Amino acid sequence: MALNLDALVETLRKPTMVGVVSDLVLFSGTLCVAVFVGLLVGWAWRPRWAAVLVGGDEEKPDGNGSRLRPSSSGASGGAGSVMGLPIFGSLKAQLPSGSTSLIPYESSENVMGGLASSSTEGGESVAVTTEDLEYLSRLVEVTDGGPAWQQMMDKSLPNMGYQAWRRDHPVGPPQYRSRTVFEDASPGTVRDFFWDDEFRMKGKWDDMLIYHRTLMECTKTGTMMVHWVRKFPFFCSNREYIIGRRIWDSGTAYYCVTKGVPCHSVPRRNKPRRVDLYYSSWCIRAVESRRGDGQLTACEVLLFHYEDMGIPWEIAKLGVRQGMWGCVKKIEPGLRAYQIARRAGDPLSRCAFMAHINTKVCVDYLRLLVNRNDSTAIEELQKGKSLGRSMPKLLIVGGAVVLACTLDRGLLTKALIFGIARRFLKPGR
User: Fold this and answer.
1) Which residues on adjacent β-strands are paired with residue 175?
2) Residue 411 to residue 244: CA distance in whole angstroms
3) pLDDT digits (tens, 9 = 90+) for 166-190
4) Does residue 321 sit in the same domain as residue 421?
5) 251 in the Ramachandran plot: left (φ > 0), alpha (ψ -120 to 50) or beta?
6) Based on the domain organization, do 162 and 204 belong to the same domain?
7) Enclosing domain of residue 6
8) How far apart are CA 164 and CA 304, in angstroms?
9) Cα 228 from chain centroid (whole Å)
């Protein structure tokens, strides 16, 4: 530090302005490089005792601030595949909590209330409930009450348009929102495409997914628990995820919820590193083509994503910004290849088959979910205003009582004081 100060003082003693500026640039450049190298070394290398200090192997909070506790029994393993997600990935955010078992079949009925629960063979629980559907609906309608979204990208291809937004949560990782519109694509095909992890790896359009396995599934609701590993850059270890996922069908849109869930049957390891805080969900629906012909031949995908990858958030934001469009550009060719394979009669993979098992939910129920908490908030606000209006009245009456008791001048004085207080109270009635 002393050498740095001496160098700075010596720089300021230069007789010419050009010399001062050049030395200052050189000095600040070397300092920035040193800071950046220190950040990388501190991020890539962390001793085990440091991980213990920050609670790396303890229970992690889920998105709602509550604790994610592993289930007491193991999951049933099976061949299959794990969920695939649009890749540009990363609170206590308003992520719903709750742990229910894989739920009974309700795909032929409109769900108008809470979902019943029943245990599965392995007894493992998956927290994918109507609370998650409500949370996703609020994100779609921009009524979740979070910070404002800041646009960060607006690009397009001949048959695809893409927009992306980001917001910084005060106590969590950066959150991302994107809107992708695919021309000449149906919502059902796009739903299967993002759910089909076998094709995701086979088609090479998502080269970060290197392993996937289905841990548990419910053939009545389509709810799944999956285990997958994503490849990260060479200077950090790969990341593994335990994800619960489920799809709701409103008749006009698919609400696909995927989130990190606890799983005791898959032990933690040093490598790959487990990501506990994970949320990536989207709404898929038909929209009008940008050709302007009035036909609903395009498909809109609204994606909401955040995760705590164990990387400093500022570095993660820089990486996402630099690599986002490169990853997004691969989705459109992958979708077209998937459409060709489907038209050619290729059989559905297990993941794509599970994507066809949805829970039916009516639009009115979704509207009720979104507006329910708003009405509650309005009622609480009105109560607060009513209480605020009554407080001055209480203060006036209390002050009059104290003053009357203090000024012991007979009944006339007390009557005068109470009369003045009553006169002040009349306008507020």
Assistant:
1) 167
2) 75
3) 999 888 999 999 999 999 999 999 9
4) no
5) left
6) yes
7) 2-44
8) 10
9) 18
